[in-house]
Amino acid sequence: MSLLEEIAKRRTFGIISHPDAGKTTLTEKLLLFGGAIQEAGAVKSNKIKKGATSDFMEIERQRGISVATSVLAFIYKDKKINILDTPGHKDFAEDTFRTLTAVDSVIVVIDVAKGVEAQTEKLVEVCRMRNIPMIVFINKMDREGKDAFDLLDEVEQKLGLTVTPLSFPIGMGYNFKGIYNVWEKNINLFSEESKQHITETIAFDDVNHPDLEKHIGEEAAETLREELELVYEVYPEFNQQEYLDGQLQPVFFGSALNNFGVRELLDCFVDIAPNPRPKESDTRIVDPQEKKFTGFVFKIHANMDPKHRDRLAFIKIVSGIFKRNTPYLHVRNNKKLKFSSPNAFFADKKEIVDESYPGDIVGLHDTGNFKIGDTLTEGEVMNYRGIPSFSPEHFRYINNADPLKSKQLYKGIDQLMDEGVAQLFTLELNGRKVIGTVGALQYEVIQYRLEHEYGAKCTYENLNVHKACWVDAEDESNEEYKEFKRVKQKFLAKDKQGQLVFFADSMFTLQMTQQKYPTVKLHFTSEF
Ligand code: GDP
Q1: ipTM of the complex
Q2: Of 58, 225, 406, 409, which has the fewest Cβ atoms less than 10 A away?
Q3: Where does this protein hold GTP (predicted)?
């Protein structure tokens, strides 16, 4: 098969949702269609369990699951579908943000009763900023929930989307009778049988046909006709280009648990979802069809076995063909590396592959060369963009608790930061190290892993910081900037890349500082 055909076959996407909306359940059902797993319950939930026996065990359990579910690939209707796992827990939001740089589209799962929840809002915002094509799946239609139109309104308002339903529910909860598939123009009836098997749908080009009453009863038929009329009136017609440009989001309804409405979603998805898209680097836009291989690291996973220090770096292939045992340029280190056992991932196994194509993810064994965001090429010097660091929300000093192990401590911190577990800042004034994280859980992860993987001990000390902002001076020789640096010296630090960061202890300080030094720009992400 040619490179072009391989690219056309691939659909690489992520499922995003607030915890409990049904991401794991939906993933599992999607895999069933690919024949990738035999029975339900095969996809492990990557949720943080409340009340787990110990936090350490929970962290280890999480890490184990995280590597097992990083990429789940399967073939459906001759398409190679790669699902990239995105943790839902807010403490791991940064992980999810980074994974979103490697997907070509997403499916957003929303609980019909809970509607748009906090985590969904954050994740969708990131997708919206990047114009990632999104399909919305309203889940749990077998339960009582919000009215479909109200929910569509909520999705538009809270998520800033423009939606168009491609399926529409017939009733809900106790009265859930099925869905009308606007996309294929047919009806799928929800019944005891449909909970066990994928049932035949009933073609229904014209909902005004009197047969509709036979299938769903008079009352439901009348309501459906009225509602569909409203759907056609109120919502824009589906337009694939607008969807691909991130301007229009199709919506499906269903029940993942009952595997209902999922086929409709998947069939439409393989039809309309984008294959691997061109990607911007610091020098140019790279097209997947280019002959030469390029790719970037979006995730690093440390070995679970402390005796083996090697890690797995997950590379998204952007262009060309990635080949085993071929030297590639690690651009940041200006070093050629080759890989004898690149891993490809499937839902039920991982295996060593000789060749991989754009859209695919390969796992490369790494002894410490990679950090998140690194680019690999056949020799071209360029770096892929789009993995900013976000301003952390928790800050603590980190202290060495075992002076004999300081080397181990610094190596450990260095590697954990490369993995993207947290961010390290060094205070300008006294060189003290500060760890910034998105969630409090990360401090436990770091402490535990430093001890078990590097043999080092650390303690933390609280630090009152509200936000860390990246400093961007219009002109470094300007007096205002010099004064800013002098006055705020105590609150300045450098991040790992050597970029200057301002620690604001409150929102008020932040505002005052910005007012006082208008030419000094303060940013909440490292990329500006
Ligand atoms: P995640 O946190 O988004 O991965 O959510 P899960 O897939 O783990 O689902 C959370 C809970 O909702 C589980 O108890 C599921 O069994 C349940 N659930 C998922 N889909 C449905 C559905 O369609 N209907 C009902 N009633 N429950 C569902």
Answers
A1: 0.99
A2: 406
A3: 17-24, 85-89, 139-142
